[in-house]
Amino acid sequence: MKYLDKAGISKIFIIIFHVVGFIGFSIPDYHDFFLSFVPYHLLLMAAILMANQKEYNRNFWVAFIFVYLSGYLIEVVGVATGAIFGVYHYGETLGIKFLDVPLLIGINWVIIIFSVGAILKKHFKHQRTVKSLVGAAILVGLDFLIEPVAVRFDYWAWENSEIPLQNFTAWFFIVFVLLRTYYELDFRKSNPVAFTMVVCQFLFFLGLNLTIA
């Protein structure tokens, strides 16, 4: 039997951790236990994704830092003003906060931008704007699934418990800008685990939506 390479092992880890997380989130008696591991899960997924990048040149790190800081600072402004996504605040699930925003939220932006960016790399050749628009639409769809789960498990909470349309509109434009910048920076964007990462996230949040409905 042919041995598994790094990408193959990484895909297995991604699938296992999402399946285990889904089971844990689905059983009320284990909610608190599994919620305490959410920050570590995000860090692990980011580490796996980055470990499978094909290149780590200067532009890669510029993209990484740009996406992290942009995502984090947009959230800081969003929480402080309510002017970007709507009025919301973060709970305790995502871990340590600075300026009322979890430091890990920037890592989440890195995971979704680098994953979808890598998937769409081979499509719409030389049409960076089209790639970015398609990627933004995909991630708004993911956010649509994330929101009810996030509210249920204290990731964040919305004013009057209503998720505003403004949130999804803002997500679309922010993701578009982040992806457009990602594609402008010249580094090898291939990542063999990106598709597995995105599919697992979609299935994880879709499954939880059906479970907690």
From TrEMBL:
<feature type="transmembrane region" description="Helical">
    <location>
        <begin position="101"/>
        <end position="120"/>
    </location>
</feature>
<feature type="transmembrane region" description="Helical">
    <location>
        <begin position="33"/>
        <end position="51"/>
    </location>
</feature>
<keyword id="KW-1133">Transmembrane helix</keyword>
<keyword id="KW-0472">Membrane</keyword>
<feature type="transmembrane region" description="Helical">
    <location>
        <begin position="7"/>
        <end position="27"/>
    </location>
</feature>
<feature type="transmembrane region" description="Helical">
    <location>
        <begin position="132"/>
        <end position="151"/>
    </location>
</feature>
<dbReference type="Pfam" id="PF04240">
    <property type="entry name" value="Caroten_synth"/>
</dbReference>
<keyword id="KW-0812">Transmembrane</keyword>
<protein>
    <submittedName>
        <fullName>Carotenoid biosynthesis protein</fullName>
    </submittedName>
</protein>
<feature type="transmembrane region" description="Helical">
    <location>
        <begin position="193"/>
        <end position="212"/>
    </location>
</feature>
<feature type="transmembrane region" description="Helical">
    <location>
        <begin position="163"/>
        <end position="181"/>
    </location>
</feature>
<feature type="transmembrane region" description="Helical">
    <location>
        <begin position="63"/>
        <end position="89"/>
    </location>
</feature>
<dbReference type="InterPro" id="IPR007354">
    <property type="entry name" value="CruF-like"/>
</dbReference>
